[in-house]
Amino acid sequence: MFRLIGVSLLLATLGLSQNVSASEENWFEVEVYVFSRQAADSEQWPEQAVPADTRKAIDLITPVVSTDVSGLNSALNGCTAADWATRPDWCNQQMLQTSRTHPEQVPVTIGAAQETYANTDESAVLLADSQSQFQELISKVSREPGVTGLLHMTWQENMKPRRQAKPIRLYAGKDFGKNYRADGSVIEADNDLVQHFTYLNDFLTQDSEDPVWQLDGTLNIYLNHWLYIETDLVLREEGDKTLAKPEPELTEQSVVADDTAEEAKQVPYLYAIHMKQNRRVRSNEMHYFDHPKLGLLIQIRKMEQPSEREVNQESEASVTGQ
User: Pfam families, alphabetically (predicted)?
Assistant: First the structure.
């Protein structure tokens, strides 16, 4: 009897180990299409431009769009896809320590140079455009009035619980960095105008050479019995901002009526329009995230797990070898 109990416990333990191992591998294929759309002029956007926080996100785009200049090639080659997935902070630091250049406009379609598939030691891998499935859908959406495509990309990702999940960085469109700072202030502005702006924390301050993308932010997908999608995207849009008339300094010698007081001023400003949403979704279904200025189409598809693919490849190789 005790022997049977021991065998039962052993089988239960083995079964538990198998379940834990299986739970560690939850790969899905993700395809997204982000587009901007015209909104009514009556929309009011925040007066303070808060950039997207992408410091801990996995960056699948930069290795594709960056131009090889002095020091950049070694930095990119030193940072594999697995490195970007597992230690993005280190990779970003490597990028900051090198001379690099980026395009003034990011291509709408971002894809790997050739068809590729995830490996068990990776967290996310960018796929080629030939592996995407949205071509017909994008063609239909693009014909809608006021729609401008920003980003289309497909990747495979190992979904984790929320505390372990790492977001994917999405950025696209035009670089406003030559004319505007990340806080929205215009670079050519006089110092007496710049001081009217409320600046953000030091970690959000950028040099004028750093890009300020038209679209920037993160897409976080995590698994908690269900799949969840969190969007934290920022669309930058040029406009004018009215600077409040400065309050006069009151002193004993101040005059009640001062005809020399400054009037309110209009200055160019780069607004930051946020799209923050969280939604529970089902795999293989098409999902649409709506916003007055943005639209996001996304599909999370079931796929062959990398471990299964590797086993199948080994089996095919052994058969071919026979």
Answer: CsiV (PF10972)
CA angle 297, 303, 309 (to 5 degrees): 145
At residue 188, the pLDDT reads: 72
Q: Is 80 exposed, middle or buried (0-12, 13-18, 19+ CB in 10 A)?
A: middle
Q: Residue 223, Cβ neighbours under 10 Å: how many?
A: 17
Burial of 300 (C-beta count, 10 Å sphere; 0-12/13-18/19+): buried
Residue 284: name the closest of 25, 28, 23 by CA: 28
Q: Which two tokens stand for residue 88?
A: 């993005």
Residue 38 has which token pair?
């015209």
DSSP classification of residue 19: H
Residues 236-246, mean pLDDT to the nearest whole number: 83
Q: How far apart are CA 124 and CA 127, in angstroms?
A: 10
Encoded amino acid at 127, one letter: L
Q: Is 189 helix (H, G, I), strand (E, B) or coil?
A: coil
285: region left, alpha or beta (phi > 0 left; psi from -120 to 50 alpha): beta
Separation of alpha carbons 154 and 309, rounded Å: 19
pLDDT digits (tens, 9 = 90+) for 22-59: 447 899 999 999 999 987 665 677 778 888 899 899 99
**Is 154 within 8 Å of 30 (Cβ atoms)?**
yes
Which H/E stretch holds residue 320? helix 306-321
Q: Is the distance from CB of 127 to CB of 116 less than 8 angstroms? A: yes
Among 11-25, 41-55, 181-195, which stretch is predicted with the lowest mean pLDDT? 11-25
Tell me what the pLDDT averaged over the chain comes to: 79
CB 214 within 8 A of CB 193: no
pTM, two decimal places: 0.75
pLDDT of residue 8: 39
